Amino acid sequence: MRKFAAPYAALLAAAFSLAACGGGEGAGGEDAAAGGPPPMPQPITMAQRPEATGGEAKYVEYCIMCHGPNGMGTGLLGRRMEVSLLEARDNLTADYVISAARLGIGNMPAIPRGEVSDEDLQAIADYLAAGPHAEAPAGGPQ
Questions:
Q1: pTM for this prediction
Q2: Contact between 129 and 97 (Cβ < 8 Å)
Q3: Whole-angstrom Cα distance, residue 87 to residue 122?
Q4: Tens digits of per-residue pLDDT, 83-107?
């Protein structure tokens, strides 16, 4: 048993010594971070859009967490559509938005009236149907 432990001990010692050497400047710490993925966009809230009213305000309140630049819905739509941000699309009808929200579509769950009223959903649908909107971030997924 001892003759098998010696190679593992040497390997472990080598790993620790290499790990101890990697923390200095030029070791790739900062360079690796610069070459990594870009940071996630900040969430969009009413604080970033204080002038939003009507359907836009309701969209920011209820929808943008999934359908904004860093939302799961935008990422999933981006696999199937050229323009994945709902605010940037010009092919949505109010009826389609209402049907997709109430019945659910793909990975999107159905949104019941207890979460979003018919009046609020109609305002959101009218806002999206009037798109594309300038509020859609230019640098986000399209």
A1: 0.68
A2: yes
A3: 15
A4: 999 999 999 999 999 999 999 999 9
